[in-house]
Amino acid sequence: MSTATQASFSLDAALLPCPLALLDTQGRVLKANALWPRDLGDDWSGLQGEERQLLQQALSTAADFELSLRGGFVLRGRWDSTQQAFVCIRQEALQADRLRWLADASRLASEARLQKFMQASMEGIAFHCDGVITDVNPPLCELFGYRLQELLGRRALDLICPGERVKAAEIMQAGRELTYETAMLHRDGHSIAVELSVRSLNCGGEILRMCIVRDIRERQATQARIQFLAHHDGLTGLLNRSAFMEQVQALIAAPSVAPEQRSLALLFIDLDNFKRVNDSLGHLEGDKVLKTVAERISDCLRASDLVARFGGDEFVILLSDVHEQADVLVVLMALLAVVEVPVDADGYVLTVTPSIGVAMYPAHGARVEDLIQHADMAMYLAKAKGSASYCFYEPSQADSAYAELVLESQLVQAIERDEFVLYFQPQVAAASGELIGAEALLRWQHPQRGLLSPDAFIDVAERHRLMLDLGAWVMRAAALQARAWHQHGVAPVRIAVNLSRMEFRLDGFADLVAKVLSELSVPGAWLELELTERMLMDEIASAPATLAALRGLGLTVSVDDFGTGYTSLAHLTRLPLDKLKIDQSFVAPLPADAGAAAIVRAVIQMAAGLGLQVSAEGVRTPAQRDLLIEWGCDGLQGEMIGEPMSAQAFEHWLAQRA
C-alpha cells in the first residue's frame, strides 16, 4: 500500500468517532485509529477460535462482511479493491445511533475523496497544518483550477484574495472555529466568493485545520437580483417608484447644498394611446416597446440624472443642476425626438409619442410628492394639447386640478341622481326636407349651474373613465326614446348616438350593444352610431370586425366630423360604413370660401363613389343649403333646420311642420 494511501487513511480514521482499522487479506492490521481496541491483538488473539476461523473465511472472499462477536460487538468489513485491503469498523451492536455512524463511516472510508463527509460531499475540503496545505479534495481542486500536487505544501493564505488575508490570518492564528464569507483566488487570478467553515482537529497530537469551502457566487447573485428587483423595475431595469422617491428625497434633503441653490427638474412622461399597442398586438409586444422606450430615454440623460418607470407606460425623470426652463427644454426636445421614432413590434412599425409634464424644484414644491403631483398635472395638460407635447407646471394649474376634482365628484353624483338628459337635433333629407333622423346630444341638468353642454364636463369624464357609465346611459336613453317615438308614431326615424373612444375600445362592445337592444326590445335599425376618424384610425386593427358586428345588428354606422381627422382612403374603402358626416367647420365658410367649397364637393363625390350616404352638419343659411343640394348631399343638419331641443320640444317642432 502506498504512502499516500496510508496518509489518506490516517486522516479519515482520525475524523471518525468509532474504532477503525485497515487490514490486508491475511487479517494483519496495517493501520488503526486511536479508538481501535488493542486487546484484539495484531494476530486477533483476542478472538475465540471459532471467531478467528469465521474472520479468516470472510477475509479470503475479498468481499464485504459482517461478524457478530461476543460481548455484543459487531465487526464490519468493507472490501476496497483499489487498495486491495479491508476497512474494518468495530462497534457495539446495541447502540443504534452509533451503528448509523458505523454505516456512514464504512461507506465514506471506501469511497473516493468526494465522499469523505456526507454533509460536505459536494463541497471543497482542505486541511492545513501551521498554514501549510496537507490535503485537499477533488471538488476544491476543480473550484480553483489546480491539481492536487500543485496545492500540497503551499501556504493556505496564498489562495485568499489579498484584501482578505489579514482577516483570514487573524482567524487562523487565534485558532477560531467559525463560518464566515471571504474571497479566494482562482488559478487564473479571478476572485471567487466563498463561505469558509473552519474547525481544528487533533490528529495524533498534531493540530490540523479543516476548511470546508462553499462556492456562494450563485447565492450572492440571487441575493443581488432580489436586492435589484426591490429597487428596480423588472421589465426595463429602471428604478421603481419607491427607490426613485427615496433617492430624490435624499437629494432634496442633502445638507451640502442650501435648498435655494439646489436646482432640479422632475419630468412626468406618459405614452400616448399605448393601450392600443397592448390591445392589438398583445402584452409581449407591448413590453418590447416599453423596453425600447426606456433605453431611448436613458440614452438622452446624463449619469447624474435619475429615471424610473412608475408602472404601465409612465416614466419619471429627475434632472439635476438645471437653473431655468431653457435647460430643461434641451432635454425635452431630445426626448420628444427619440421616443417618437418608429418602433418595430412583431413586424408592425409603430410610432409612440410622449406627453411630458415638468415641475421645477424648489419653485413648484419642496417635497418629492409635491413635485410628482404637479408634474403629473402638467402632463395631463400636455396630453390635452395633443400627442407629443409638453407643459411646465404653473401654480394656477393646482386650482384647475381642484376644480376638476370637484367636477369629477359631482359627475359621479349626477350619474347616481340621474341628472342627465338628452336633447335632439333633427336631420332632414336635403332634397325634400323630410325628417330622416335625430342626433341625440347629452346635457347635464346641473343643480347649481343649470343646463350644461358636454364641453363643460366631457373631458373630465373621459380622463376619469366616467365616460363608460355616461355612454351606457346615453345608449339606453336613446334606445328608449326611439322605441317611444316608433310605438306612438311620433318620429319613426333613427336616433344617432355619439360613441366615445373609451366605449369603442371595450372588448366585446358589439355584444354590449346587442344586450341593450335585446333588453329594451329595440331593433338595431332604430339607432345610428357616430364615430370620429381618429377613433377608427386608433383602433384600425380591431375596427373592421367591431363595425361589421354592429352593422350585423342592423345599426347604421357613420363617421362624424369627417375631414378633420387623418383617415387613410385605403382604410376607408375597407371599413364597413354607411355614412360620412361633413364637419361644420367646412360648411360654415360656404359659399364664399373656395377652398372649403372644393373640399365639401370632393367629399360628396367620393362618398357617392364609395356607395356611402353623406350629410352635412352646421347648415345655417339658405345659400349653404342650396349649394349642398346642388352638389348631391343626402342629408342636412344645423341651426337652419332646427336647434338641439328636448324630447318634448322636438315633438312640438314636428307638430308645427305637419
For the biggest β-sheet, the strand order reads 18-19-21-22-23-24-25-26
What is the gyration radius calculated from CA atoms?
43 Å
Based on DSSP secondary structure assignment, what is the total number of beta strands?
26
Shape: elongated
Mean pLDDT: 84
How helix-rich are the residues, as a percent range? 40-55%
Q: pLDDT below 50 for ≥5 consecutive residues: which ranges? A: 93-120
Overview of the structural elements:
The chain contains 24 helices and 26 strands. It is elongated and about 135 Å long. An eight-stranded mixed barrel has the order 18-19-21-22-23-24-25-26. A hairpin with a 2-residue loop joins strand 12 and strand 13.
Q: What attributes does this structure have?
A:
5-stranded antiparallel sheet, 8-stranded mixed barrel, alpha+beta, 24 helices, 42% helix, single chain, elongated, 658 residues
Fold topology:
Blueprint: H1 3-15, E1 20-23, E2 29-32, H2 49-60, E3 65-69, E4 73-80, E5 85-92, H3 96-110, E6 124-129, E7 132-136, H4 138-144, H5 148-151, H6 165-174, E8 178-185, E9 191-203, E10 206-215, H7 217-231, H8 241-253, E11 264-271, H9 275-281, H10 283-299, E12 306-311, E13 314-320, H11 325-339, E14 343-345, E15 348-350, E16 354-361, H12 368-385, E17 389-392, H13 395-417, E18 420-429, E19 435-446, E20 450-452, H14 458-463, H15 467-488, E21 494-498, H16 501-504, H17 509-520, E22 527-532, H18 533-538, H19 543-552, E23 556-562, H20 569-574, E24 579-582, H21 584-587, H22 594-609, E25 613-616, H23 622-631, E26 635-636, H24 647-657
Parallel strand pairs: 16-17, 19-21, 21-22, 22-23, 23-24, 24-25, 25-26
Antiparallel strand pairs: 1-2, 1-5, 3-4, 4-5, 6-7, 6-10, 8-9, 9-10, 11-13, 11-16, 12-13, 14-15, 18-19, 18-26, 19-20
